[in-house]
Amino acid sequence: MKALQITGYGDIQKNLRFNAIEKPKVKSDEVLIEVYAAAINPVDYKIVEGALKQIRKLKFPSGTGFDVAGIVVETGDAVTGLNIGDKVYSRVPTDAPGTFAEYVSVVADAVSIKPANLSFEEAAGLPLVGLTSMQAFETGAFKKGDKVLIHAGSGGIGSFAIQYAKSQGAFVYTTTSTKNVNWVKELGADKVINYKKQDYLGIVRDADLVFDTLGGHYTEDAFKVIKEGGHVVSIAGILDKVTAKNFGLNGIIRFILALKRLPVTIAMKRKSAHYKFIFVHPDGKQLDALRDLVEAGKIKPVIDKIYDFSEAIDAYHYQKSGHAKGKVILKMK
Ligand SMILES: NC(=O)c1ccc[n+]([C@@H]2O[C@H](COP(=O)([O-])OP(=O)(O)OC[C@H]3O[C@@H](n4cnc5c(N)ncnc54)[C@H](OP(=O)(O)O)[C@@H]3O)[C@@H](O)[C@H]2O)c1
Questions:
Q1: Residue ranges covered by each domain of the chain
Q2: Where are its TM segments located (predicted)?
């Protein structure tokens, strides 16, 4: 079968190649999915560039891609609840062979029936951003009526998270640039802040939760806008102490991280607040809940561009530009 593979760490143009490889064999707890569509996420180019090699070192050539929508064509002996012919979607586990391929084998627990009202391309863009947002809100002890700041409302994560937050009864602040203000408002955000013209630090007050999708100085600044005892959940900022340990980072790296994290730690203590970095994990049950929200019309996929599988490397470059408006999709069939 045809698969896009990572051949080494570094420049994405030089280290991604289409190869003809063997179709994966299913283990007893896995299903084989014929891939109809997949979605690119920033993590895909970050992995090629080596940004995650301290957490997970690749053996080359290595598969790539985490989001998939397709049809089950084979099931392992121990699989119950999924059958050949099911139309499914998944954010596959980190050690799965990669979804930018004609077929991918995935542990059945990470797979769910896709929303019936969506095409494969639309469904493929939901699992990673959906699970990340849902897990961030859980971590941030979100409850109905909370005031939430979601940075980068026009991105893959932000365009999902705004809709999810509204479906759960939040008051939503979000940031975006001039060209995106109107359509981001249409996603349901209560207050859209144009970061090119306005300073959100002077607008957002007493947020219960900041969903930090930008990292850098945005992580520390989040504590200026949360209420006492509030939560900052980051997916792009510095690792918290527990997460760094769980990732298996060595003592020296954890010590350096603790020093770098000091401004965040001080800001957090001043507000008696909470800080957590999360890394999304696969969860078929959570995808069932997401399907219900989509089929009820509460969340709509936001697709920026659809690329043919043969143009996958161009899609990586576009995702890396940092200005995608929603999701970047690969169409395989
Ligand atoms: N830890 C995890 O498990 C996890 C999971 C998913 C994603 N992530 C990370 O989360 C980050 C966001 O992911 P994504 O998929 O949403 O990325 P994305 O789709 O590439 O985000 C692009 C969007 O960010 C907006 N943006 C850029 N700079 C901004 C700023 N200063 N203020 C407000 N908006 C800004 C852009 O809007 P304009 O064009 O208007 O500037 C664009 O629409 C990435 O770093 C990704 O790696 C982590």
A1: 2-125+301-331, 129-277
A2: none
Sign of the Cα pseudo-torsion (209, 266, 220, 132, in order):
negative
Atom number of ligand 1 nearest to Cα 152: 34
pLDDT tens digits, one per residue of 238-275: 999 999 999 999 999 999 999 999 999 999 999 999 99
Probe ligand 1: pick from 131, 149, 164, 176, max atoms within 8 Å of CB? 176
What residue type is assigned to position 18 of the chain? Answer: F
- CATH number for region 2-125+301-331: 3.90.180.10
State how far the Cα of 103 lies from the Cα of 32, in Å rounded to an integer: 7
Nearest ligand 1 atom to the CA of 280 is 3
| Residues 166 and 172: beta-carbon distance below 8 Å | yes
Classify strands 87-91 and 67-75 as parallel, antiparallel or unpaired: antiparallel
Sheet-wide strand order for 274-277: 191-194, 171-176, 147-150, 207-212, 226-234, 274-277
Instruction: For domain 129-277, give the CATH superfamily.
Output: NAD(P)-binding Rossmann-like Domain (3.40.50.720)
Which residues, 6 or more positions from 256, have their beta carbon under 8 angstroms from its beta carbon?
none
**90: phi then psi, degrees, rounded to nearest 5:** -165, 150
Q: What is the pLDDT of residues 132-181, one digit of tens each?
A: 999 999 999 999 999 999 999 999 999 999 999 999 999 999 999 999 99
Query: Six-digit token pair at 129?
Result: 């951003």
Q: Is 155 in the pocket of ligand 1 (CB under 6 A)?
A: yes
